[in-house]
Every structure is written in C-alpha cells, then in structure tokens.
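Protocol step 4 of 5: obtain the predicted structure for the target chain.
Materials: sequence only (see below). No template structures provided, no constraints applied. The aim of this step is simply to have a reference model before the mutagenesis design in step 5. Sequence pasted as it appears in the construct record:
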Amino acid sequence: MHVARLFDGFDLSVLTFLTGFAGRSRLFDHLVNALSRLDIFKGIALMCLFWYTWADAPANEPAYEREIRQRRLIMVLIGTVLIGGLSRGLQLTLNMHQRPVLADLGLPFPDIEFDAHSLNNWNSFPSDHAMFFFALGTGLWSINRVAGMIAMLWTIVVIALPRLYLGIHYPSDEIFGALFGFLGMKAFLALPLDRFERFLNTWRHAHPGLFLALLFFVTDEVGHLLAELRDLAQSAAHILIH
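Step 4 output (structure tokens):
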C-alpha cells in the first residue's frame, strides 16, 4: 500500500481533470461506457488487426517472408495469452489499491447506471487491459510498425482512457500495465524458442484445418480477454476446493 501512495498526487490530479467533464453530456458518458464495456471496441477490434497482419501482404511477397511473418504472429499471440495470465496474477497478489469508483475519493465519476460493485473488488494495479493489449501491440510492432502503432494508440485512446474516466482504473494502473506489457512481450520474444517455433510451424502445415480452427479459438478468447476461460478456471477451482 505504501508504494501506491507514491502516485496519489499524479493519479488524483488526472482523475480530477477527467471527471470535470462527467455529467455534461449524458450521451457522451454512455458512449464512453460502451467503449469500456463492449469487447467489440476492445479485443475484437485488435484481433481484427491481428488477422489483417496475418493475411495482408504485397502481391510480390516471397513465400518464405510470409512464413516468417505468420510464425512470428503465432509467437506474439502465445506471448499475449501468457502475459494476460500474468496480469491477472499481479492484480490478485500485489494489493496496491481498490478501484477509484469504489474508493470514496469524492470525485464525480459519470452516472452511467451500472453497478460499480459488479466490478471485481480486488486491487486494480496493474491494468490487465493495458498490459494485455500493449503486449499485443508490441508484438505487432515487431512485425508491422503501422499495425503495432495502431494497436497501441487504440489501447490508449479507446481502451485505457474510458476506464480512467469511469473510475475503473487509476492512471498509474494504466501506465504500469502498458510498461509491463511492453517489457513482457520484449522479454518473451527474446527467449530462445526457435525449436518450439519450428515444431508449431511443422504441426500447422501437417494439420492446416485443425491449426486454423485452434487459431480462431485463441484469437476469439483473446478478443474477450480470456473471460470464458477465466470463468471456467474459477468454477473448476471452486469445485476442487469445496
């Protein structure tokens, strides 16, 4: 908790500025809520960018270059899933601070008619969305700089800012989430995983239909921030513990 206090001044000043716009336009407040709540504006949009990067290529691109690009994308997707799991683990263990909208800060967060207590009540540091999707953007940047830039800007403007405005995260949650996602993906892609990458590539050529079905499944789950897999894991843990 003492570490979190280091960012109080910065966090509160940013949130105070943002909430100064709350309530001025009911339509705007509900639009921001939709951006924050609906996966179509978050993971689904970024998974479309993933598939664009997978399929788009110059007409004269050599087959071996397409192969390298797609192999790299597979590793980026795996790294994104692992970093997403790490982000949730950090939220569960760090115990930095409660979500702003639940913390009685005295700020006029938008009244958008949703139950704030439906949010998880544990620590909000770091932002799992920022960590998850900045990792993806960093990976895409290593393959296609335009796609990577779009992914990171989209994460900042469409995903992170609405969650600040609604009081779901502090600015420090988002900043460190983005930093951890960036560093996590850089570290993952630097690992000596050549043998594993070659194994996956051989397997996908041997079973192209099954591979694409699994790839679609994983990108769909990433598009929903692994929500259904997390629900299944929680249900399984509850059954095993009790």
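Step 4 remarks: The first helix runs from residue 2 to 5. The chain has one domain: 2-241.
Proceed to step 5.
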